[in-house]
Amino acid sequence: MAEQPRSNEVDFTKDLHPDFIKRCVCPLALLMLLATVLIVVILTIFHVKHPIVQINSVGVAKLNPISNTTLIADVSIKNPNFASFEYSNTTTTLYYHGIMVGEARGPPRRAKARHTIRMTVTMNVITQRIICSPYFKKDLRSGVFITIGRFSGVPGKVKILNLFKKHVVVTTNSTTTFRIFTQVFKEQICKWKLKL
Question: I need a surface site. Which of 61, 78, 81, 162 has the fewest CB within 10 A?
Fold first, then answer.
């Protein structure tokens, strides 16, 4: 014998009208789709990545073993973000085996979204500090390669869709090994840190 519903139990399937589906279920599905799109946009476009600063080549503009040597560096800055990156004047400190031997200054620039810009930077090196270092003769004997460390701090802001601005500081700690006489790079190892 089939069980008959009790009088106090309600069958909800009878009350589902197509009108109810249009008014409640469709907006709910649309709201969930909108929330999914918003989460994807926040995780991709609004996620700020560090710009990549790399030295492409170095040339000697003025060589003076007694005082300062001027180097000209071709530097590229790659902006991997979906937003433009504007930065102010940059200062890079050069180190030779932990001793500060020079400084480089870069002009303020704007890197468009997902673009690479190149610029020429003048580096002033205190030659005496390198020559007087106990490591210099050893480096000369070991194949005429020299390793220079550099630390850069690049303060700037990322503009997202020209509506939102995030202030960031990108710091780069790198070591560059190159041949002294030909200025050919052997290797370049960098660590970046992004501070929001």
Answer: 162
Report the DSSP beta bridge partners of residue 172. 152, 192
**Tokens 């007087």 belong to residue:** 132
Q: How far apart (Å, rounded) are the C-alpha atoms in residues 40 and 68?
A: 52
- Cβ distance 84 to 102 under 8 Å? no
DSSP alpha helix (H) spans, the chain = 12-15, 18-20, 26-44, 127-131, 134-141
**pTM of the full structure:** 0.70
* The pair of three-digit structure tokens given for residue 120, joined into one six-digit string: 């020429």
Token output for 154: 């690049």
- The burial class, CB within 10 Å (0-12 / 13-18 / 19+), for 32 is exposed
Question: CA-CA distance, 40 to 34, in Å (whole number)?
Answer: 10
Nearest residue to 180 via CA among 151, 140, 152, 142 = 140
Among candidate residues 73, 83, 85, 66, the one with its CA nearest the CA of residue 126:
66
Is residue 18 within 8 Å of residue 26, measured between CB atoms?
A: no
Two tokens, residue 59: 């040339």
Ramachandran angles phi, psi of 145, nearest 5°: -105, 145
Q: What is the pLDDT of residues 37-73, one digit of tens each?
A: 988 877 777 778 878 878 787 777 887 777 788 888 8
